């Protein structure tokens, strides 16, 4: 694929947000609080002076309360997929998903997309650095959204990753993606995770233009 244009992170004007804007209310606010809990528990470990039995009882009471009021999961799935455009529940950008960092993405007029995120202890692999599988997850999603931004989407068939240097926790990461080429049903897309302009992980994806039907 020698005709690929260069990815130039951060150079172009942001045009449109491609991820849900978190609200400071409702499930979004509870999810934001849950992210704090996940991070604080990892920080605590077993050497904490916090009363973990009490913490567990409170968290179980919250889960019991939610389960008691939740409807059937099939209805929730329909609800999740009822709108068009950005999703609110995915594990990378989802305002409604506590395991999402969350990453916020915006489309740019040069056809690329990008966003910044800082990852903490829940995403650790090597000491003080991001787990390689987490980087792969972020890039798979960014490549998928790049395709949506470019107008031809598909499912990941092949994802090739190059890990150039360890990706640090607690530092702002810039993640960019761009659709490179479409031939028939095949879509080639690239992306990179950078710190201070230096690439840490780069990805090349082959996507096939096919969609799983939305639940109705
Ligand atoms: C705004 C919201 C945006 C949200 C973004 C979210 C992005 C998330 C992206 C994902 O994570 S998707 C989930 C992970 N991917 C999957 O679960 C896909 C699982 N695999 C499949 O469903 C199918 O294998 C696939 C759709 C990829 C292809 O099956 P098809 O039956 O449609 O295609 P087919 O097997 O006929 O192959 C079509 C062409 O692609 C080629 N191909 C298929 N898989 C390939 C592969 N793995 N490697 C190389 N080439 C491949 C295949 O050789 C063939 O080439 P030719 O036309 O030249 O003969």
TrEMBL record:
Pfam families in the cross-refs: 4HBT, RHA1_ro05818_N
Highest classification ranks of the organism: Bacteria, Bacillati, Actinomycetota, Actinomycetes, Propionibacteriales
GO CC annotations, alphabetized: cytoplasm; membrane
Protein name: Acyl-coenzyme A thioesterase THEM4
Keywords (A to Z) from UniProt: Apoptosis, Cell membrane, Cell projection, Cytoplasm, Fatty acid metabolism, Hydrolase, Lipid metabolism, Membrane, Transit peptide
GO BP annotations listed: fatty acid metabolic process
Database matches in InterPro entries: HotDog_dom_sf (IPR029069), RHA1_ro05818_N (IPR048654), THEM4/THEM5_acyl-CoA_thioest (IPR052365), Thioestr_dom (IPR006683)
EC number: 3.1.2.2
Entry membrane topology: Peripheral membrane protein
Protein origin, superkingdom: Bacteria
Enzyme category, top tier: hydrolase
Reactions listed under catalytic activity: octanoyl-CoA + H2O = octanoate + CoA + H(+); tetradecanoyl-CoA + H2O = tetradecanoate + CoA + H(+); (5Z,8Z,11Z,14Z)-eicosatetraenoyl-CoA + H2O = (5Z,8Z,11Z,14Z)-eicosatetraenoate + CoA + H(+); dodecanoyl-CoA + H2O = dodecanoate + CoA + H(+)
The family this protein is said to belong to: Belongs to the THEM4/THEM5 thioesterase family.
Thioesterase domain: residues covered: 128-187
Localization annotation: Cell projection, Ruffle membrane; Cytoplasm; Membrane
Start and end residues of each RHA1-ro05818 N-terminal helical domain: 18-75
């Amino acid at each position: 694929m020698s005709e690929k244009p260069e990815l130039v992170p951060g150079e172009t004007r942001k045009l449109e947000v491609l991820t849900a804007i978190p609200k400071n209310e409702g499930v979004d606010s509870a999810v934001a609080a849950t992210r704090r809990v996940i991070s604080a528990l990892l920080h605590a470990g077993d050497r904490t002076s916090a009363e973990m039995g009490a913490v567990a009882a409170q968290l179980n009471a919250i889960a019991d309360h939610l389960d008691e009021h939740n409807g059937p999961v099939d209805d929730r799935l329909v609800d999740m997929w009822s709108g068009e455009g950005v999703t609110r529940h995915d594990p990378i950008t989802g305002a409604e998903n506590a395991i999402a960092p969350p990453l916020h993405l915006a489309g740019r007029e040069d056809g690329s997309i990008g966003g910044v995120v800082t990852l903490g202890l829940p995403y650790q692999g090597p000491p003080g650095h991001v787990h390689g599988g987490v980087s792969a997850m972020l890039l798979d999603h960014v490549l998928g959204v790049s395709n949506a931004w470019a107008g031809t989407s598909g499912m990941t068939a092949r994802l090739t990753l190059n890990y150039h240097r360890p990706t640090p926790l607690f530092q702002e990461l810039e993640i960019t993606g761009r659709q490179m080429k479409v031939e028939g049903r095949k879509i080639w897309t690239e992306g990179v995770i950078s710190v201070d302009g230096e690439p840490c992980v780069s990805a090349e994806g082959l996507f096939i233009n096919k969609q799983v039907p939305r639940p109705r």
